[in-house]
Amino acid sequence: MIANSLFEAVQKTIPEQYKERTTEELQKRAEEIKAKLGNKLFVPGHHYQKDEVIQFADATGDSLQLAQVSAQNKDAEYVVFCGVHFMAETADILTSDQQTVVLPDMRAGCSMADMANMKQTERAWEKLVEHFGETIVPLTYVNSTAEIKAFVGKHGGATVTSSNAKKMLKWAFEQKKRILFLPDQHLGRNTAFDLGISLSDMVVWNPHTDSFEGDSHDGVKMILWKGHCSVHENFRMEHVQQLRENEPDRKILVHPECTHEVVRASDLDGSTKYIIETIENAPSGSKWAIGTEMNLVNRLIQNHQDKDIVSLNPEMCPCLTMNRIDLPHFVWALEQIEKGEPINKITVQSHIAKDAKLAIERMFDNV
């Protein structure tokens, strides 16, 4: 597997001409190539992508939805994934060997996915089994590398999404007494709490010190990997308190990657899909503060001008790594495909893909 730290070395530098072209020129080229390639090209775009890129998406959705629709599209020879690296990996795992997955900018990573690597996870597993015995099943959020998905698949576990996390935790507890939840502690904690598990029965594992943070007593049910989303951790209690004081009639809607305190203090929480559907179904004139990535919040504001929508954090910026893919990189990727010389191909090694697919399929089988 290619580590994120090596992306700069692996990726060719984008030619200056792409940065010098006007937006109109780039948009025209994207339209021309899409029309020329037709069904041979499929462009999935994540909800968090920039408008300049998402306008060319053939499908929009969350990471797993997009990987699934990519795999279902048997006509496409090329899948140009407008998202981040772990999403493109999942698409490569689920698509056929005859399909090529391209990531327009290899620097588009995910800080959360980078918070759990294979060496850390193998060390942790050895220590956790030594401490708790063979009582643990691993689950990983789909926002993780292919290697972590493979580790989980190999050890009888499965992947989860923010939409199906409750179902998958219920399934996991039918397998073993305890769950190791990677790599986002907040989604794990919030989901387990919703299922009635006490915070006192959860403990954090710190992969940097190879130790527990908290009481690792025999009643522990959730072992939470010390990872987080750098975007969603920036929605803080001070933002909730300010809104409650200044605009008590504004509902607060957040993603479960936010901290436990923020989720508990909000009116509603749920996956990206849930957030979108909640706003779509909300009455005209309703007021909302949303705690999720800024590109999506801005798109919701634009698409629902009959509603009063703001970001929960007024100083929030878009996800930096999600923002890596821009129109110049997108057109560069398309033109290289047009030439028959695709760049930034995402290829997951077969032995890793095999075990990772096991984890993904266990999820599909149980939701």
From TrEMBL:
GO molecular function: 4 iron, 4 sulfur cluster binding; metal ion binding; quinolinate synthetase A activity
Cofactor details (free text): Binds 1 [4Fe-4S] cluster per subunit.
Cell location: Cytoplasm
Gene3D superfamilies: NadA-like
Protein residues bound to [4Fe-4S] cluster: C110, C229, C319
Pfam family, one: NadA
SUPFAM superfamilies assigned to the protein according to its UniProt record, in alphabetical order: NadA-like
Amino acids binding iminosuccinate: H46, S63, Y141, V142, N143, S162, H255, P256, E257, T272
Reactions this protein catalyses: iminosuccinate + dihydroxyacetone phosphate = quinolinate + phosphate + 2 H2O + H(+)
Protein's UniProt keywords contain Iron: yes
InterPro entries: NadA, NadA_sf, Quinolinate_synth_A_type3
Signal sequence annotation: none
Keywords associated with the record: 4Fe-4S, Cytoplasm, Iron, Iron-sulfur, Metal-binding, Pyridine nucleotide biosynthesis, Transferase
Assigned protein family: Belongs to the quinolinate synthase family. Type 3 subfamily.
Name of this protein: Quinolinate synthase
Source lineage: Bacteria, Bacillati, Bacillota, Bacilli, Bacillales
